[in-house]
Design a protein that fits this description.
Layout (H helix, E strand, L loop, with lengths): L4 H8 L5 H9 L5 H34 L3 H27 L7 H23 L5
Amino acid sequence: MTTTAAGVALAGAALADPILECGVTVGPDGDVADCLSRQLEVATAAMGQALALARGAATKIDQVSGGQLAVLGLEAGQQAFEAYRDTECKTRAAFAAADPAPDRFRLACAIDLTRRRTDALLGLIGPQPD
């Protein structure tokens, strides 16, 4: 199976609110937290694919320029994103502590931010030929 930027873009595209999506998917008696966990796995996998595409593009840029700025910048940006996402989502869950299931807010936050990062990574590389 080959991965194209368009395929990753669809996987990482920001959709509706993840909690709403799971509520619709599993229905009133379903396990929303389990659904959110699965969605986060999918979003994380899509981001990984987008990151791999961006690394490839960054490597080509560095080969042409004779430097390492694109790869190093991409890696530093990814590390900073992951630290931000984890802290931001834990904070959102803390503010939702009065909710009977505050972890769903952490998961939904992680899904949303991961999808946004995927879109940002794909934006770095631009359109790719199929």
